[in-house]
Amino acid sequence: MPRFLSLADAIAEYVHDGMSLALEGFTHLIPFAAGHEIIRQGRRDLTLIRMTPDLIYDQMIGTGCVRKLIFSWGGNPGVGSLHRLRDAVENGWPNPIELEEHSHAAMANAYHAGAAGLPCAIFRGYLGSDLVHHNPNIRSVTCPFTGEQLAAVPALRPDLAIIHAQRADREGNVLLEGIIGVQKEVVLAARQALVTVEEIVDDLRAPSVNSCILPHWTISAIAHAPHGAHPSYAQGYYGRDNAFYTAWDAIARDRESFNAWIDQHVRGRSA
Amino acid sequence: MTYTTQEMMAVAAARTLTNDDVCFVGIGAPSQACNLARLTHAPNITLIYESGTIGTRPDVLPLSIGDPELCETARCTVSVPEMFQYWLQGGRISVGFLGGAQLDKFGNINSSVIGSYAKPKVRLPGGGGAPEIASHCRQTYVVMAQSRRSFVEKVDFITSFGYGEGGDHRERLGLRTLGPTLVITDLCIMRPDPQTKELTVTALHPGVTREQVQANTGWQVRFAEMLETTPPPTDEELSVLRDLQARTARAHAQSKS
Hints:
The complex is a heterodimer.
Chain A: E1 3-5, H1 7-14, E2 20-23, H2 32-40, E3 46-49, H3 54-62, E4 66-71, E5 75-76, E6 80-81, H4 83-91, E7 98-101, H5 104-115, E8 120-123, E9 139-142, E10 149-154, E11 160-169, E12 174-176, H6 183-189, E13 192-201, E14 212-214, E15 221-224, H7 242-253, H8 255-265
Helix pairs in contact in A: 1-2, 2-3, 3-4, 5-6, 7-8
Chain B: H1 5-15, E1 22-25, H2 29-39, E2 46-49, E3 53-54, H3 68-72, E4 76-77, H4 80-89, E5 95-98, E6 102-104, E7 109-110, E8 113-115, E9 120-123, H5 130-136, E10 139-143, E11 151-152, H6 169-172, E12 180-184, E13 188-192, E14 199-204, H7 210-215, E15 222-229, H8 235-253
Parallel strand pairs in B: 1-2, 1-5, 5-10, 6-11, 10-12, 14-15
Antiparallel strand pairs in B: 2-3, 3-4, 6-7, 8-9, 12-13, 13-14
């Protein structure tokens, strides 16, 4: 059974400098509250893994938590660049970061392989793409039956997975619904898993016998974090704050306005 | 009705789609074109977004690839590994939409870096789903506003493979799909030459000259012998498009916090 902890205690206990960490959620259910707590606790040298770094990794990169990023699409969806990610890559601010870049298909397959206990993922991909020349972890294998050359990437096995979900029951079973992304895979691939939830309830109210439920014995710790995905969203609880995603472009474009925003909205200091 | 070149691009792209198409839709111009087709002549088109939503019918255009509207109006929503494994790699998609920062004359697309990869002048978002959309969809359509900066002789980086160096380069890599068979811009429509695979202008939008197309293209442009003129947008196409854009702007301006 997972431990029920406050968010601050959970991050203090499970997130350590230098570890590999995946905060997942494909547009939906992005664990922003957990990311903000990591920023407040000043963790350093993290290897962050995420298909779409999104605003949460832009914030963690801009506050100096990150040494390496493994990713497949690093933009602000529908808006433009992640300016903090760009500043780190182009100018080394606040520190240089190492990139390991993949395609979505590769990352999704690599989490799937991690969950399945395989050393690598094999799929048909990267054909003709220059990404293979810049990422030594993109290799190929020959199908023993047909002779076809297929792409291979190492399985993703983060030290810790953090996801946000709609609710957990008091035993610690977790229910997700809506766009479920790669969350089941990342929890089963990671060595430990921390889940933040909108609600802790007596009855999960699973909508179907086929609902996406992570049984309590797959999870290390649960923290109650209502509104913990904002400005991403939690289907059935609140919508995506598209106005904030749009506003982030101007906030993050400039180092000073970014620092001021972090101080006020994450660290809770007045400007 | 008078119309903008952006509206002409959206309408021209929408017209290429049919009720039988299963489209892998990207955010921005592709999403606008696909939903315009669905709201006009192709009500039964299947729209798929890489977040896992299959057969979605959003009332407003999504800002992101995974907006709530997409899931709420979908026939079903699957996980992201399933989306890339069964539906895309499995060969279920008839048309994939692509765009990027740069396109070259053989339909290769760069959405990764301007300059060198190790020391980029501009770090772009990257490939996301595009490298495998480019190889697994039966064919791909590119929707992109045209300029000398974006339509270049040679891309700085091939994120998504089109026809490579032209000719039979796709076949030599073992690709069995058709590649970028159609490029729709704000000025014209281009299709690959059947042999060389070099993009060739087959239709000009109304009022656009060959000189204008050349002035906005970084390579020596070829024009088809039988050069057509795109029919202008109809009043119905324009009013449906503008309603959709107005609904979308209203919805995205509302903060949910």
